């Protein structure tokens, strides 16, 4: 009788434990996750979705370095892990010193349930205004998805554009 | 016998530390509702475990 009474408390405790595990697995998987792929030169950088979830990061500080005059290719992937389809307006713009330099993209994205959507755009640094006097010029690419903003710092390198390419 | 208890102690400590680390690492993926529900379930789990050990005579 005493053992049965004890188990009356043990089984709910075990049920709670497995409930917590189930919440972590299911709720942790579900949601909207966005990944940014940046290709500058021959290097591709990936900003995983969990970067933005870590310690309330607003900015991506890892240097995305491109030479002045080069094109920087961006791919923005939205993973919809929900039972309903997802749609939102995506606006991408380039900023410098708190001023908008140019609009890069403005589109509505629609992603079906448990599917992925992608958008691509290019920052052509050759089309920007005159190169700032600094060795490295910092620009910010702001990706606005509904209420959410992702900010990526882009470094433009002036000096390497002067490096002579050896002739064959 | 004392060594066995010390080893049990280490085992329990490492288990709690491991589960605590995993929970801290993965809690950021949860929605607000998921966090709240997990908190409630954790409180209930410790309450039931407490009663269980109380009935065991601890």
Short description:
The complex is a heterodimer of chains A (168) and B (58). With 168 residues, chain A is α+β, with helices and mostly antiparallel strands.
Give the secondary structure arrangement, pairings included.
The complex is a heterodimer of chains A (168) and B (58).
Chain A: H1 2-29, E1 31-40, E2 43-47, H2 49-53, E3 59-67, E4 71-81, E5 86-96, E6 99-111, E7 115-124, E8 136-145, E9 148-157
Parallel strand pairs in A: 3-9
Antiparallel strand pairs in A: 1-2, 1-4, 4-7, 5-6, 5-8, 8-9
Chain B: H1 2-26, H2 32-56
Explain how this protein is built.
The complex is a heterodimer of chains A (168) and B (58). Chain A has 2 helices and 9 strands; from the N terminus they run αββαβββββββ. Chain A has helices at 2-29, 49-53; strands spanning 31-40, 43-47, 59-67, 71-81, 86-96, 99-111, 115-124, 136-145, 148-157. In chain A, the strands form 2 sheets. In chain A, strands 3-9-8-5-6 form a 5-stranded mixed beta sheet, with no helix packed on it. A 4-stranded antiparallel beta sheet of chain A has the order 2-1-4-7. Chain A is elongated and about 85 Å long. The model of chain A is unreliable at 161-168 (pLDDT under 50). Chain B is mainly α. Chain B is 86% helix and 0% strand. Chain B is built from 2 helices and no strands. Chain B has helices spanning 2-26, 32-56. Chain B is flat, with a radius of gyration of 15 Å. The relative contact order of chain B is 0.06. The model of chain B has no long low-confidence stretch (mean pLDDT 91). At the A-B interface, helix 1 of A face helix 2 of B.
């Amino acid at each position: 009788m005493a053992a049965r009474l004890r188990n009356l408390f043990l089984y709910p405790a075990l049920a709670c434990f497995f409930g917590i595990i189930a919440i972590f697995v299911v709720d942790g998987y579900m949601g909207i996750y966005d990944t940014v792929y940046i290709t500058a030169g021959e290097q591709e950088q990936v900003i995983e979705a969990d970067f933005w979830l870590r310690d309330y990061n607003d900015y991506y500080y890892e240097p995305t370095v491109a030479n002045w005059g080069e094109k920087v290719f961006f791919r923005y992937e939205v993973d919809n892990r929900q039972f309903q389809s997802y749609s939102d307006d995506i606006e991408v713009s380039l900023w410098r010193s708190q001023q908008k330099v140019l609009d890069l993209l403005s589109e509505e994205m629609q992603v079906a349930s448990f599917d992925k959507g992608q958008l691509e755009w290019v920052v052509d640094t050759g089309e920007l205004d005159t190169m700032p006097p600094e060795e490295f010029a910092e620009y910010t690419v702001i990706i606005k998805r509904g209420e959410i903003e992702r900010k990526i710092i882009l470094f433009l390198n002036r000096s390497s554009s002067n490096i002579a390419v050896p002739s064959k | 016998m004392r060594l066995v208890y010390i080893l049990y102690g280490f085992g329990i400590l490492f288990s709690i530390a491991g589960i605590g680390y995993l929970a801290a690492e993965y809690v950021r993926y949860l929605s607000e509702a998921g966090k709240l529900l997990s908190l409630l379930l954790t409180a209930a789990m410790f309450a039931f475990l407490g009663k269980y050990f109380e009935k065991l005579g601890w």
